Amino acid sequence: MSSHQSIDDNAIRPLSAELALKAHQELGEVPDRVSADIQALRTWISKQPHLKARQDAQFLVAFLRGCKYSLEKTKLKLDNFYAMRGAVPELYNNRFVGEKQLSILKTACLLRLSQPLQVDGPRIHISRYAQYDSNKYSIAEVMQVNTMLGEIQIREDDNAMVSGFVEIIDMKGVTAGHMFQFDVVLIKKLAVLGDKALPYRPKGFHFINAPSTAEKAMSIAKGLMSDKIRKRFHIHSKLDTLYQYVPKECLPVEYGGTNGTIQNVVDTWTQKLIDYTDFFEQDAQYGTNEKLRRGEPINSETLFGIQGSFRKLDID
Length: 316
Description:
Blueprint: H1 17-27, H2 31-46, E1 51-52, H3 57-66, H4 71-87, H5 89-92, H6 99-106, E2 110-112, E3 123-127, H7 139-156, H8 158-163, E4 165-170, H9 176-181, H10 184-197, E5 202-208, H11 212-223, H12 227-230, E6 233-236, H13 239-242, H14 262-275, H15 277-283, E7 287-288, H16 300-304
Parallel strand pairs: 3-4, 4-5, 5-6
Antiparallel strand pairs: 1-7, 2-3
Helix pairs in contact: 2-3, 6-7
């Protein structure tokens, strides 16, 4: 049995002193109140006929932190988190740890670095879409693996859950084949997923090595975002300007830093994903039954304003 499955359902991993202070100051975390909030969420979940959700304390506290301890926001986000499984089947169908998922991870297209930005800082992610073969895998398959890594972080990564993450998107070597896979509907779905359903907060998106063709795609993407999110997007024509946000030493050896090698990161996460094989098998049982939901169902149309037509794309 792997470590995460033997954990007591009521146990919450203690935060480091630095993260505990940050959780208190920025998220309003009051240790004495956490168990009451978790109990309130469990009671609420048990009263939702449409919702089958995980209820262990470590999972629920991640959502409370992601919603700054607003119980109402937390309920909404948890509900959306599970409703997304039916609304975005291209990411959630057959989401198991198998040969395909491990092969995608081993291309080193999705990196979660070992050291955060500071001791109480955000996790650093690097996405390198040129690393996967676009003739072999779709961006939806790559993003499925991304959601799996994210759910491991929900359970294990206190820096990501308290301080969020910084995403570096390295466009070096990205081909027309890769760009063609990023259709507007998928971008919209990913934006809504990040905004309304996932408990971790993006602190910045930094594009490096971007070809001019990619800037057009990014301007489309920026048009789909709220002002708050748009301000977090940065395009760097050279690495020097990235270093103002992510110091050089925080990057992997291959980028001139000292934050592990890309192969270390791949090896660590490959093992982690294998350790979570049973977790993702069990995970298939959780979700929502929209027929049992009181009120309006949550589906592609209500979440994304997508009715099978680009013209009707509801861009807020």
